[in-house]
Amino acid sequence: MSVQRVAVLGAGSWGTAFAKVIADSGPEVVLWARRDSVAESVNGAGINEDYLPGTKLPANLSATTDVDKALDGAQAVVLAVPSQTLRANLVGWRDSLPEGATLVSLAKGVELGTLKRMSEVIREVAGVPEDQVAVVSGPNLAKEIAAEQPTATVIACTDHDRAVELQQACSNGYFRPYTITDVIGCELGGACKNVIALACGMAAGLGFGDNTMASIITRGLAETARLGAALGADPLTFAGLAGLGDLVATCASPLSRNRTFGHRLGLGESLAQAQEAAHGQVAEGVKSCSSIRELAQRHGVDMPLTDGVHMVCHDGMHPRTLGAALIGREPKAERQ
Ligand SMILES: NC(=O)C1=CN([C@@H]2O[C@H](COP(=O)(O)OP(=O)(O)OC[C@H]3O[C@@H](n4cnc5c(N)ncnc54)[C@H](O)[C@@H]3O)[C@@H](O)[C@H]2O)C=CC1
Ligand SMILES: O=C(CO)COP(=O)(O)O
């Protein structure tokens, strides 16, 4: 069955850009926005003035603040809200979800408290089987995709046929999705790279260059893969788009909210100052560094960079002290 109608719930920067990707690939898309002004701007000027100013949205993409209208007849429901609010959002939506629709997570985080991945939260709240939930993850900076710059991504679903249906619904001249069945690896790659991007931003704020960045990226990938191994992910996933691909894009790009947030901390700003400068947009790693750290501790996995980012964000450690502590750790073998 081909996907002809899609609901995208969450009209932030990625929700809006991904809604455009799908609409540009053929299906009708209805975008749910929390605020009237956002829905009016999309339906009137064809632009999401608050989150993607300057991007003209296609005619087969409309917006509403009425979630029932957005969900009516949708064969796929894309969840595009921040990780830490997904559960509360979904509780409000679950009774209206169309029977059998693929539920697609765009969020990159691990839930505080429960330490669950987003697909686990979706299954629990919506009461759907594992094979009805898909995850989209990869090097997907919303602004570049909105500008139709060529990008690849992965669609992870334990049901390969469902992933292929979704792949067809979001393939176009600038967006190339691959399929994969390793949902765990893709979700961990997406959540952990936000934390590593915070560390790269801190290093940049301290004035460090490319050797430091490459070292953080590579060791960040090593600790992500260690956690993945403990949780049953396929190690090769971390060499793919949802692993290395997303890690490199996020750690290197000034468009990344996480890297920018870390950069501000590295320059000496407080958490509150960096949060204010983010203008309400999410830097997921600031919260996920705590949940990922706890998950790692529960499974006996060593994640020094994640520990350090947590200490800077939540225990008042200065990024310079973190740098010195990391470089001065006990010598060890690279693959230990
Ligand atoms: N922006 C990007 O380039 C990419 C973002 N992502 C992920 O997608 C997810 C969503 O990100 P964005 O769209 O960029 O975020 P955003 O901060 O731009 O927008 C969040 C959207 O969620 C809505 N929302 C609904 N309930 C909310 C609540 N209770 N609290 C706060 N916001 C609420 C907001 O109104 C807003 O429309 C995140 O997990 C992010 O890591 C993934 C790939 C790329
Ligand atoms: O996930 C992203 C790119 O793939 C976006 O990263 P930020 O949330 O740091 O902007």
Automatic annotation (TrEMBL):
PROSITE patterns: NAD_G3PDH (PS00957). It is found in: Cytoplasm. Keywords: Cytoplasm, Lipid biosynthesis, Lipid metabolism, NAD, NADP, Nucleotide-binding, Oxidoreductase, Phospholipid biosynthesis, Phospholipid metabolism. Substrate binds at K108, R257, N258. It catalyses: sn-glycerol 3-phosphate + NADP(+) = dihydroxyacetone phosphate + NADPH + H(+); sn-glycerol 3-phosphate + NAD(+) = dihydroxyacetone phosphate + NADH + H(+). Pathway: Membrane lipid metabolism; glycerophospholipid metabolism. Its main location: cytoplasm. Residues 6-161 form the Glycerol-3-phosphate dehydrogenase NAD-dependent N-terminal domain. The active site is at K193 (proton acceptor). GO terms for molecular function: glycerol-3-phosphate dehydrogenase (NAD+) activity; glycerol-3-phosphate dehydrogenase (NADP+) activity; NAD binding. Sn-glycerol 3-phosphate binds at K108, G138, K193, D246, S256, R257, N258. It comes from the Bacteria. Residues 182-321 form the Glycerol-3-phosphate dehydrogenase NAD-dependent C-terminal domain. The keyword Lipid metabolism applies. Belongs to the NAD-dependent glycerol-3-phosphate dehydrogenase family. This is Glycerol-3-phosphate dehydrogenase [NAD(P)+]. It comes from Umezawaea tangerina. The gene is gpsA.
